[in-house]
Amino acid sequence: MCAFISQAMNQFVQAPILGLVDQTPSPNVITAQILPTSSATAIQVGSAVKLVAGTASTILVDVCSGPTDGPVFGVITYNARKNLYSAGDLVTVGCASTYIYLKASGTVTRADKVTTTAATTAADPVVATVSSASTQYITGVAVDTGASGSLVRINIAPSFNGTV
Asked: What predicted TM-score, i.e. pTM, was given to this entire model?
């Protein structure tokens, strides 16, 4: 699972970490509330979220359970204080046009459209190249090339089962 990251004493630039926003300032990072009745068992940084119906004074989101659950609204961004969440918690969400580091589950090539697989209690959420654009919701476009397990920058560009 996602661990808190600290910067080494002689490190002058922060290394990429899961959920870290890049290419700032990003005008499309918002605060939202995870649906209080969410059944998601693993909610963490890098998890894709979708808008849900409900009455609240905040924007309500719930975790996408996999590539065919959506449409994706955005991705939970890195927070230095808290990276594991529960139903009802407030989170920051990087929406369209935000650049976020996410973990690749296989080889991801620059310009690939990617979809997100949800976190589990034993594993971080991951992105993979879209294999079926007609059934999978696109999370964004890879701007880096990376191997399985590496962090790649993704330009969040959600779509409704179609092209970005």
From this structure: 0.85
Number of domains in the chain: 1
Asked if residue 12 belongs to a domain, the reply is: no
SS3 83: coil
Residue 16 within a domain: no
CA–CA separation, 48 vs 64, rounded Å? 6
CA angle 139, 114, 97 (to 5 degrees): 45
Q: Answer whether residue 75 is part of any domain.
A: yes
Q: Are 85 and 91 in contact (CB under 8 A)?
A: yes
By residue range, what is the domain housing residue 120?
A: 21-156
Instruction: Write down the pLDDT at residue 77.
Output: 94
- Does residue 55 surpass a pLDDT of 60? yes
Instruction: Say what the pLDDT of residue 80 is.
Output: 87
